[in-house]
Structures are given as structure tokens and as C-alpha cells.
């Protein structure tokens, strides 16, 4: 067993998903050589897991990735989302009336989101972390114990390290959150998100479409051109979990027929461009985001329905807020792992997280339902929003992560 207690490991981040990698990079870039940043994740060993998700990265999160120098790596393969259309219909309805349209610009020339594919973003972040001098360790954090002035961390390979702070970015089923004794309030939706990349004949012109079908929302999200048919979109199809095993066992042709019924015919012929995978959908928020020398980040702190494409964006807002809290404290000579410092981060993120969680939970309940009075009420509501430009502008700024006073990185300013 090696003991590395003597090393100056200032901050350890457990979890090399997009949230953990982004935080490691932001900290290392801002604090430089006198601060060592360690990121540990067993998934760093070997080839990255196949993950065909694509994310609607909001304008604020994109500004942060640009400031961190990562946006360049994904810009060429990203797709600006220039319009968002919402329709409410039954699966077999031939005509899907449009109830709400957003022209997706926060400011002229600045779309409210870009679609970015998971693999490119993770690879870009990893390369930037390596270049910046983040220590990447291909092992997990097994356990930790808080002591006076530090936290003692034991890794999966039995090595140990003392750190000022442990950040748990280990995903929604965070074992470290459990070890810290932090409770989780949450429930499952009985829905899964079926994800695939679909090729199509006609261009999408940057338009995202969300059909609210009785089993849940079916989103068609524009990807950069490519594939056999020239154009591509990512679908996120929320389906009752009980139906998912039978759907996933379909052969390609039958699966394509099922997708076509929901996708519609507007974009011409369609083809499958990736494997089809499913993610169980649930809601949850940690009872606290911080403890002494311990902070939760990303899905480890909150899990929301992908109905509004905001889960990762919430995680990236956490990154901006926690990085700012740590860097400002370190520059003032304060201890960045001290509870009163970390409480600043919790305060900055708690309200936004709970509000977004409640909004996505409410939307999903309202729309995953075929009862006629509910359909009428929601269609009336969508029609009203569509006629109120002020409210639409507010919703666009909310979705872009630019409402209120965002942390510096989300405004595109360096720390
Ligand atoms: C179908 C679907 C579509 C979505 N679409 C969008 C979208 O359009 N926009 C959006 O903003 N969000 C979207 N999301 C949400 C988004 O995918 C998640 O919020 C995001 O991936 C979470 O990132 P993370 O870094 O917090 O956690 P994760 O990606 O879960 O990473 C956690 C990491 O921790 C590691 N780990 C686990 N245990 C340990 C340990 N003990 N020590 C060290 N490492 C450990 C794991 O190996 C893993 O790499 C979607 C989600 C789904 C399911």
C-alpha cells in the first residue's frame, strides 16, 4: 500500500464525467502550479464507454467551455439550435399542431443552445485536463475520512492522499454521497429515455422539435450534418419502462418503423446511425450539497428528467459556481475546504436546482398524460406563452442559463 500523504494534493475530484472534468480544468487553469488537482475515475482506464447521448449545451455553459479553451475541440461538430417547436399530439395523429415556437437566439447571432455529442466533449475535456496538468488517476475513490484540516482519501488501488477538499462528481447513484451521510429525496418516473442518432434526407435547419406523446416527450434534436443520408438528429424518446425491453429487442427495420411513427415524415427518409440505448429516468435532489471538506457536483447532487435538456447544464452551472467559490477563497488565503466557504457554493446553486427540478418534474407529469381536460389546459397554456414575447424571452434566457447574475465563467469571463 503506497501512502502519498506527503504530497500536496489540494483538491481531489471523484468522477470524470463532464462535470468532474470541467471542474478539474477550471481549477487547474485558475490556480496554476501551487495547487494540485487530482481527478480519479476507474472509467479512465481503457477506451471510453460508448455513449450516444448528445446534449443541448446552453449559451452560458458554452461561454464557459469557450473560456476554458475546450469549445474549439467541439465547435466544428456542434450544431446551433436556432428554433424550438413544441407540439402536443397522439402517436398516430397525422397532423401535429404546433403550440409553441421559440426562435432560439439569446442575443442576435447567439443561439440559446448548441447540440454537442458526448464523445467529442469528453475527449476534448480530457485532453485539455492533461495539457493543463491535472493528475488523472484511473481508479475510483473507495472511501474517505474527514480530519482536522484535511480529508484522507483511499483510492480503489489502495493508495491514499490527504486533500483540502473532496468533490464527489460520481453520478446520480453517488456512493460518496451515501458515505457522507447526505440524504436524497427522489422518485422514479417509470419512464426510460431511449436515445439514438437518426439520419434523414432533408435538412433540419437547426430546428429542435418536441412532440408530447402520451407515453412521454419525444424530442428530435438537430446534430451537425453527416451520415449516410446527409443530415442527422439525436432522438430522446421517453417511453414507459415496461415497454422498453420489447422495443430494444426489435431488429433494425422494426425499430425504424417504431421511430418513424413518432419522428414523422417531415424530414423525408430516415435511417439509424447509431445503436439504440435506454436510460431509466428519475428525479432526485441531495438534501445538502456540501459538508466539511466535501462537495457534491453534477448528477451526484441532482437528477432531473431530460424533458428540457437541462441536466448537464445544471451540472455545468455547479462547476462555474464551485470553481468561483474555491478560486476566490484560495486567492484570499482562505481554506477552500472549510464548510463556511463551501456553503457559499450551496447557496448559489440550491434554489436554481430545486426550481429546475420542479419545473421539469411538473412538465413531465403534465405532458405524459392523455386525459382530455389536461390536454386542453396545456394546449391553452402553450398557446398563451406563444403570444407573449416578454415571457418567451424570459424562458429563453432561463434555458440559456443566463437569467439572474450568473457566475463569471458562465458570463464568459476567466476566473
Ligand atoms: C436520455 C438523456 C438525455 C439527456 N440529454 C441532456 C441534454 O440535452 N442536456 C443536458 O444538459 N443534459 C442532458 N442529460 C443529462 C446528462 O446526461 C447528465 O446530467 C450528465 O451526463 C451528468 O454528468 P456528471 O458528470 O454529473 O455525471 P456522470 O456522467 O454520471 O459521471 C459520473 C462519473 O463518476 C464515475 N464514478 C462513479 N463512482 C466513482 C467513484 N467512487 N470514484 C471515482 N469515480 C466514480 C463514473 O465512472 C462516471 O464516469 C440527459 C440525460 C439522459 C439520461
Q: What would your notes on this structure say?
A:
There is one protein chain. The protein has a domain of 196 residues: FAD/NAD(P)-binding domain (3-Layer(bba) Sandwich). It contains 11 helices and 23 strands. Helix 1 runs parallel beside helix 4 and helix 8 packs antiparallel against helix 9. Helix content is 34%, strand content 31%. The radius of gyration is 22 Å and the shape is globular. The N terminus is likely disordered. The two termini are 38 Å apart. It is of the alpha+beta class and 415 residues long. The strands form 5 sheets. Strands 5, 6, 15, 16, 17, 18, 19, 20 and 23 form a 9-stranded mixed beta sheet that branches. The structure holds flavin-adenine dinucleotide (FAD).
Overall geometric form: globular
Output the radius of gyration.
Answer: 22 Å
Strand portion, in percent? 25-35%
CATH class of the domain at 9-50 and 118-186 and 283-367: Alpha Beta
Proper CATH architecture of the domain at 9-50 and 118-186 and 283-367: 3-Layer(bba) Sandwich
What small molecules does this complex bind?
flavin-adenine dinucleotide
Structural class: alpha+beta
What is the number of helices? 11
Round the mean pLDDT to the nearest integer and report it: 88
Major sheet characteristics: 9 strands, mixed
Query: Share of helix among residues?
Result: 25-40%
Distance between the termini: 38 Å
**pLDDT < 50 stretches:** 1-7
CATH fold group of the domain at 9-50 and 118-186 and 283-367 = FAD/NAD(P)-binding domain
Could you state the CATH homologous superfamily of the domain at 9-50 and 118-186 and 283-367?
FAD/NAD(P)-binding domain
Task: Give the total of beta strands.
Answer: 23
Amino acid at each position: 500500500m503506497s501512502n502519498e500523504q506527503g504530497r500536496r494534493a489540494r483538491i481531489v475530484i471523484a468522477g470524470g464525467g463532464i462535470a468532474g472534468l470541467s471542474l478539474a480544468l477550471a481549477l487547474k487553469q485558475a490556480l496554476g502550479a501551487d495547487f494540485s488537482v487530482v481527478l480519479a475515475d476507474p472509467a479512465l482506464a481503457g477506451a471510453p464507454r460508448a455513449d450516444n447521448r448528445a446534449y443541448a449545451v446552453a449559451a452560458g455553459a458554452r461561454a464557459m467551455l469557450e473560456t476554458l479553451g475546450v469549445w474549439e475541440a467541439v465547435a466544428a461538430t456542434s450544431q446551433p439550435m436556432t428554433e424550438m417547436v413544441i407540439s402536443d399530439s397522439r402517436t398516430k395523429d397525422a397532423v401535429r399542431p404546433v403550440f409553441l415556437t421559440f426562435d432560439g437566439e439569446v442575443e442576435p447571432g447567439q443561439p440559446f443552445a448548441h447540440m454537442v455529442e458526448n464523445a467529442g466533449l469528453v475527449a476534448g475535456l480530457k485532453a485539455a485536463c492533461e495539457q493543463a496538468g491535472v493528475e488523472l488517476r484511473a481508479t475510483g475513490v473507495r472511501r474517505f475520512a474527514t480530519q482536522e484540516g484535511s480529508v484522507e482519501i483511499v483510492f480503489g488501488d489502495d493508495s491514499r492522499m490527504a486533500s483540502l477538499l473532496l468533490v464527489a462528481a460520481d453520478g446520480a447513484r453517488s456512493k460518496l454521497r451515501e458515505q457522507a451521510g447526505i440524504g436524497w429525496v427522489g422518485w422514479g418516473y417509470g419512464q426510460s429515455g431511449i436515445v439514438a442518432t437518426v439520419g434523414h434526407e432533408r435538412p433540419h435547419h437547426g430546428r429542435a422539435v418536441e412532440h408530447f406523446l402520451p407515453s412521454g416527450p419525444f424530442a428530435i434534436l438537430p446534430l451537425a450534418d453527416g451520415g449516410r443520408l446527409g443530415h442527422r438528429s439525436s432522438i430522446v424518446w421517453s417511453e414507459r419502462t415496461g415497454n422498453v425491453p420489447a422495443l430494444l429487442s426489435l431488429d433494425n427495420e422494426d425499430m425504424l418503423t417504431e421511430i418513424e411513427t413518432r419522428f414523422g415524415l417531415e424530414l423525408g427518409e430516415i435511417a439509424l446511425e447509431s445503436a439504440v440505448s435506454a436510460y431509466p429516468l428519475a428525479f432526485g435532489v441531495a438534501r445538502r450539497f456540501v459538508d466539511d471538506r466535501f462537495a457534491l457536483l453534477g448528477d451526484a447532487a441532482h437528477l432531473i428528467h431530460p424533458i428540457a435538456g437541462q441536466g448537464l447544464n445544471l451540472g455545468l452551472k455547479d462547476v462555474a459556481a464551485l470553481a468561483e467559490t474555491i478560486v476566490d477563497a484560495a486567492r484570499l488565503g482562505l481554506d477552500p475546504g472549510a464548510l463556511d466557504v463551501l456553503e457559499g457554493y450551496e447557496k448559489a446553486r440550491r434554489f436554481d436546482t430545486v426550481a429546475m427540478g420542479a419545473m421539469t418534474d411538473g412538465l413531465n407529469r403534465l405532458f405524459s398524460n392523455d386525459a382530455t381536460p389536461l390536454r386542453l389546459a396545456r394546449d391553452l397554456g402553450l398557446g398563451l406563452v406563444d403570444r407573449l414575447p416578454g415571457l418567451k424571452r424570459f424562458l429563453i434566457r432561463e434555458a440559456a442559463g443566463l437569467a439572474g447574475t450568473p457566475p463569471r465563467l458562465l458570463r464568459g469571463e476567466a476566473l
